[in-house]
Amino acid sequence: MTQIPTGSALPGQTLAKAVVSKSGMVILGAGTRLTEHYIARLKKLGVPDISIRREAPPSPSPSPPAPEVPSRPRDGGGDGFKTSLAAVKEAVEEFKDSEAIRKRLSVPMLGQRFFRIYGQLLDLIGRQPVIMEQLAALHRKDPFLFRHAMNVSAYSAIVGFANGYGESQLYELTLSALLSDIGMTGVPTALYAKSDTLSRDEKERIEAHTLEGYQQLVRLEGIPHTAAVCALQHHERYDGSGYPFGIRKEEIHPYAQIIGIADIYDALVSPRYHRKAYTPGEAIEYLLGSGDTLFNLPYVKLFVSHVSIYPVGTRVQLNSGQTAVITSVDPSFVQRPIVRIIQEPDGSIVLYPYELDLKDRLEVVISDIVQ
User: Fold this and answer.
1) By its UniProt entry, which SMART domains does this protein fall under (predicted)?
2) CATH number 1.10.3210.10 is the correct assignment for the domain at 79-306
3) Is the pLDDT of residue 55 over 60?
4) Is the peptide bond before 244 cis (omega within 30 degrees of 0)?
């Protein structure tokens, strides 16, 4: 181990000791391989010196360090925690057989094998107390945060499956997605639930959940180091405009790139304290427009072509005022399916329903999903 000035650090060197802020927060964990962006960020944070390993840098995904804190929640498992843990167990079981999730896979020929593997992954996750305790803490903080985590994990698993990942890779990706927002448990609820414009300090406090999530997960025995990396990086963006370090392209772990796409999609189609939900079509248009800027375009295309945003049979409202049912979805144009008109704008029922191919009727868009 060698202590050097941060300004003398070189890309490719590996940290021998964690870099810790004045408040005790881990900024970068031991075993992290330095990049130009990491070094620049450390300089900006005013870190004077760092400890690096003398040997050649190891692989980018080192084994996690020995646990430093117990995995049990701080409240010792009170009634509130037990209630959340029971809700988490129920939700995991629900997702294994959820018809809603099943419909989200737009390539039916892949569906049966995917759900067999996905169910096995959730079974494995459900049998590990350390993981379930973290999810229970997230649920207790806000059930909405937990539900978001479940959705993000399902979407991420679909993309990983479509990308040809093996079962061990899918396990790490699914688990990493589930725990990517675990750092939000330390953010004051009144802050992330604020409907007004955030101040700079408030925004920075929320963004710190990535660092806190990394710090939390890297200390837990039984959690893959990849999960901690994804908690740190899932808000980084392909063009370097993300946080906390502004890294870009291949510097962002592939799992974190996939999770970032799933995270923003589910965030857009869900109502937030400060805005209404986007329609799935609007969210897809946003992703497609962000390809190779905010997100890796090949991953965006995998998401768009394998996640069915309008499952067949869904009732929708068109901007024309008509009510329709989705009858067919082209994976290449998921936001513009074929619909069958069942009700006209004046409320009259169509006696002989007819179809519209929205790919050919660009002036007609889906404005809402009818529950």
Assistant:
1) HDc
2) yes
3) no
4) yes
Domain 2-52 belongs in CATH node 3.90.105.10: yes
Identify which of 1-5, 81-85, 109-113 has the greatest average pLDDT.
Answer: 81-85
Could you tell me the two tokens for 202? 């408030």
Coil vs helix vs strand at 53? coil
For 206, the token pair is 């929320």
51 - beta bridge partners? 3
What one-character-per-residue DSSP string does 197-255 give?
Answer: PPPHHHHHHHHTHHHHHHHHHHTSTTS-HHHHHHHHHTT--TTS--SSS---GGGS-HH
Q: Which helix (H) or strand (E) segment is 277 a member of?
A: none
Q: Are 89 and 43 in contact (CB under 8 A)?
A: no
Q: Are 174 and 157 in contact (CB under 8 A)?
A: yes
Return the bridge partners of 366, or none.
318
Domain boundaries, given as residue ranges, for the chain: 2-52, 79-306, 315-369
Assigned token pair, 172: 């790490």
pTM beyond 0.70: yes
* pLDDT tens digits along 133-154: 999 999 999 988 999 999 999 9
Nearest Cα to 234, choosing from 203, 187, 267? 267
Which position has the token pair 């699914």?
A: 174
201-224 burial code (b ≥16 CB/10 A, e <16) = ebeebbebbbbbbbbbbbbbeebb
DSSP letter for 174, please: H
Pairwise CA distance, residues 260 & 230, whole Å: 9
